[in-house]
Design a protein that fits this description.
The chain has helices at about 25-40, 40-60, 65-70, 85-115, 120-145, 160-170, 175-200, 210-225, 230-250, 255-265, 270-285, 290-300, 305-330, 335-345, 345-375, 385-395, 400-410, 415-445, and strands at about 75, 80-85, 460, 465. By secondary structure, the chain is mainly alpha-helical. About 45% of the residues are buried.
Length: about 475
């Protein structure tokens, strides 16, 4: 067959690409960097470093520059109207819509073909996630009900998927696949709960006209799917229009990302068997540009759009969107006076207790109850001491917790906002340390993963699996 290389013939016609070459920049920078981006804890590490940079910047001689930079305004003139927001709000309302879009894709995949599609397997993590949301919110309200910080009850409900999976990844195959799937499913349900809380409870005022416009756009997306229109350009345009409509409606604009993610198909566009037959025929023909193009289309069409888009957007979300969010929101003044005030502030105490105690007791308690009642089961090869470590891992709030903090206190006094952020950062750091200690004890002596084997791999929004 023409177009194929004979045995022993070199693969590269004009030399290898830079990344695959033997040049020093490829050996010492390119390939190590590419390998780093594939490591599970990498996203959490970059996120952590950006949070540290933000804290150092906000507590340096250039602290005034931190505030002035992130609060500088950017105006976009759309002829018919203008969008004028601070740089921080462009990050929180704009960039974070992409993060929530990827979360929506993951939720859709799990509902269609993942753990959320198997009620029996999903009972324990779903119930644990509910316990891990309700109890922290109740504990927070016990500290703040009737006070100025009451609106922050949604803050300790959140789990940071990137950090949680990053902590678990540190133990490699000593954590069995069913345990990792349990934590991921729990975190996805937790994200879904956070999305509902943001949409329902952190919406100040509503514009029915713009909500109607958003509804029309959603109907157009559904119609495009029914007509089997799969042009990315069409959906990007509709997604931007939906984001703008949500922004003007009063519902938080990031919800547009979730809605678009849930509307994307989680099933292959082509029948895999038929596509394989066509591919075999094309491979037997000459390697023409047209045949190669058809093979590329077939390859894309046999992968669910949700998986394909997650694969493309995951690095951007993990290594750009979330780190920029941390830079914009984690900069909190940490003077002695502020720290002393925060340690006695009901907002801080409610968040710290909610994340550390509420998450731990709510998740492990509900999991124990489901197993005790016979309604659910523990993940395979996952003892209770490991479950306790997973429950503590979920107490790492960070990204979504900081996001809800801005929604709850962004328009209030800086004291409440700073106290809440100190609570989130402090509790998340303590939860990570305690989780590592608990998981170390639970995995001591475990050398290999002892399970029936992991389920088929997919890409999560905030970490490779």
């Amino acid at each position: 067959m023409s177009g194929r290389h004979s045995k022993g013939e070199r693969l590269w016609e004009s030399g290898p690409t830079l990344l695959h070459s033997d040049k020093a920049i490829a050996r010492y920078i390119g390939r190590p960097a590419a390998q780093f981006l594939k490591i599970e804890p990498a996203g959490g590490l970059v996120l952590f470093l950006c949070a540290v940079i933000a804290l150092l910047w906000a507590n340096s001689p250039w602290a005034a520059g931190y505030d002035s930079f992130w609060h500088s305004h950017i105006t976009v003139d759309l002829t018919v109207t203008q969008v004028d927001m601070s740089l921080q709000h462009w990050v929180n309302d704009g960039l974070m819509a992409l993060f929530f879009f990827v979360v929506g894709l993951e939720i859709k995949s799990e509902i269609v073909s993942g753990e959320l599609n198997r009620p029996k397997n999903a009972v324990t993590p779903i119930a644990a996630a509910v316990g891990g949301m309700v109890l922290p919110a109740a504990i927070y309200l016990a500290f703040n009900a009737g006070g100025p910080g009451q609106s922050g009850w949604g803050i300790p409900m959140a789990t940071d998927i990137a950090f949680a999976l990053g902590v678990v990844a540190l133990f490699g195959k000593r954590i069995p696949s069913p345990a990792r799937v349990f934590l991921l499913t729990l975190a996805i349900v937790d994200d879904l709960g956070a999305i509902v809380v943001i949409a329902v409870f952190y919406t100040a005022s509503l514009s029915l006209e713009w909500l109607l416009a958003a509804g029309v756009i959603v109907a157009m997306v559904v119609m495009m799917r029914l007509l089997r229109v799969w042009s990315p350009t069409v959906y990007v345009a509709l997604g931007i229009a939906l984001w703008f409509s949500m922004l003007q409606s009063g519902v938080h604009a990031t919800i547009a990302g979730v809605v678009m993610g849930l509307l994307i198909s989680a099933k292959p566009l082509f029948n895999p068997d038929a596509a394989r037959d066509w591919a075999d025929r094309l491979v037997q023909d000459d390697a023409t540009f047209q045949n190669n193009h058809h093979l590329e289309v077939l390859a894309r069409g046999t992968m669910p759009p949700t998986e394909r888009i997650q694969h493309r957007l995951h690095p951007f979300s993990t290594f750009f969107v979330l780190p920029i969010f941390a830079l914009a929101n984690a900069g909190v003044p940490l003077s002695g006076e502020i720290l002393r005030q925060a340690t006695s502030e009901p907002v801080t105490l409610g968040i710290v207790t909610g994340l550390l105690v509420g998450k731990f007791v709510g998740i492990s308690g509900m999991a124990w109850l489901m197993v005790k009642l016979g309604w659910g089961a523990l993940p395979k090869n996952t003892p209770w001491n490991m479950m306790l470590g997973l429950a503590m891992t979920a107490g790492i709030g960070f990204t979504v917790a900081l996001f809800i903090t801005e929604l709850a206190f962004g328009g209030d006094t800086s004291e409440l906002l700073d106290s809440a952020k100190i609570g989130v950062l402090g509790a998340s750091a303590i939860a990570a340390i305690v989780a590592i200690v608990l998981l170390s004890a639970a995995t001591r002596g475990r050398q290999t993963e002892n399970s029936d084997g992991p389920r088929s791999e997919t890409t999560s929004p905030l970490g490779e699996r």
